[in-house]
Specification:
- This protein has helices at 11-19, 47-53, 60-74, 79-93, 109-112, 138-144, 151-166, 170-187, 200-203, 205-213, 221-232, 244-258, 264-276, 279-295, 305-315, 347-350, 385-399; strands at 5-8, 23-24, 321-326, 330-332, 335-337, 342-346.
- It is mainly alpha-helical and 402 residues long.
- The strands form two sheets. It has a four-stranded mixed sheet with strand order 1-6-3-2. A two-stranded antiparallel ribbon has the order 4-5.
- The radius of gyration is 26 Å and the shape is globular.
Length: 402
């Protein structure tokens, strides 16, 4: 790749790059790998060691990592097979017991603990181990996500995302987000009169709403939301190395919660939908609340929520810049550039282009020239723009009237 970067900030020029299939999405990178250090000496293993490493007694990133490991182990254990083996073992234990076994409560310890002793099954000769597949982690998610794909892979993965989104009605998402925000606000102590004081739990409500719709059980939602936030913090690259293992664990956890079929690409896109709805939507909500607070004194009435969201996306987009790479020699803003040149698209500047927007530096909800580029443009616009807008509107429906 060329070391040169071209900055594009004009609205028409940004649209032209986004329309041009010669400009592809570059790979994402984190900080350079740290020098490997020698592992700490292994301590003596006993009950304290077990408790200190058990998922049951863990919290935060350690809990996410250990729960992911447990889900990975359980994925290889088929419940019907366990049931059949436990029945067979109990059947073998009961005939050797002295006396009648008519009374269920008299069943011996050997039988009630039979599930612990289900033996492994061996054939006459060891079978070849099945081919192993990479354990899902952050690198797997990025390599499988529609966002970082190009060409035929992008088309295939985008169709998966569109299929998932087709089952999510934006109006229903908006109602769900409003209801969840209402429940969260009512549980918060103190006054909620100032919009910018809305807690993290409220601005991340869209993640919980979408997680529920994608099939995450209610009791797993808090852990799932924490996992999504962990991934979102490093998803776009540039992360320090010490932040990557917790993200890997979070990906494995969500893969276990959302991997309801054998289609890894579909599982990945489910996770991607949650990640995409996380930091960007939270930033959108925080910006909208702050802009309402700053401008409310000059309004005779608060503008409609949909207008507030649309103008916030123009005025202060969550993703201010995105990158493309010229796959072949191309032309940008009238200048010829060689293949491999990185093109930096300044969406924030394009959204304030005076050639397109009247009075571009003023926050004017309801403006008629609301052709912002916050959701991209051209051959790969955001497929979930209506859904993201609906989720943000739902939270603001509640937050601005609380």
């Amino acid at each position: 790749m060329s070391s040169r970067t071209v900055l594009v900030s004009g609205h028409a020029d940004v649209r032209a790059v986004l329309d041009d299939p010669r400009f592809t999405v570059p790979p994402v990178h984190d900080a350079a790998p740290a020098s490997p250090s020698s592992p700490p000496a292994q301590s003596e293993r006993g009950l304290a060691w077990l408790r200190s490493r058990a998922v049951r007694f863990s919290n935060g990133d350690e809990h996410l990592r250990r729960r992911a490991a447990a889900l990975d182990l359980l994925a290889g254990l088929a419940p019907p097979g366990l049931r059949a083996e436990a029945a067979e073992r109990a059947r073998a234990l009961l005939p050797v017991r002295p006396g009648p076994a008519e009374r269920p409560e008299a069943v011996s310890d050997a039988v009630v603990f039979a599930p612990v002793a289900v033996p492994p099954v061996h054939d006459a000769a060891p079978a070849s181990p099945p081919p192993s597949r990479p354990r899902p982690g952050l690198a797997w998610l990025r390599s499988t996500a529609v966002r970082f794909s190009n060409g035929d892979r992008h088309l295939r993965r985008r169709s998966v995302v569109l299929d998932l989104l087709a089952g999510l009605a934006p109006l229903e998402l908006r109602a769900d987000a409003a209801e969840r925000a209402r429940a969260l606000l009512s549980a918060r102590p103190g006054s909620t009169e100032r919009p910018e004081a809305v807690s993290d739990a409220v601005v991340f409500a869209p993640v919980a709403v979408l997680g529920t719709r994608l099939g995450i059980a209610a009791h797993d939602l808090p852990t799932a939301v924490d996992a999504v936030r962990t991934i979102a913090d490093v998803y776009l690259g540039g992360a320090d190395n010490d932040r990557l293992p917790p993200a890997d664990a979070a990906v494995r956890l969500l893969s276990g919660l959302l991997g309801t079929d054998s289609d890894e690409e579909r599982t990945a896109q489910r996770i991607v939908l949650l990640v995409q709805s996380c930091a960007a939507t939270a930033a959108l909500l925080r910006s909208a609340l702050a802009l309402v607070e700053a401008n409310r004194p000059s309004w005779t009435r608060t503008p409609p929520v949909a207008d507030l969201v649309a103008e916030t996306l123009r005025f202060d987009p969550p993703a201010r810049r995105i990158r493309r790479v010229a796959s072949v020699d191309a032309t940008v803003t009238g200048e010829s550039i060689p293949a491999g040149t990185e093109v930096l698209l300044d969406l924030a500047a394009a959204n304030r282009d005076p050639a397109v927007f009247t009075d571009p530096d003023r926050f004017l909800p309801g403006r008629t020239d609301a052709h912002h580029l916050a959701f991209g443009h051209g051959i790969r616009p955001c497929p979930g723009s209506d859904h993201a807008t609906a989720l943000a509107c739902g939270v603001l429906d509640t937050a601005l009237t609380a």
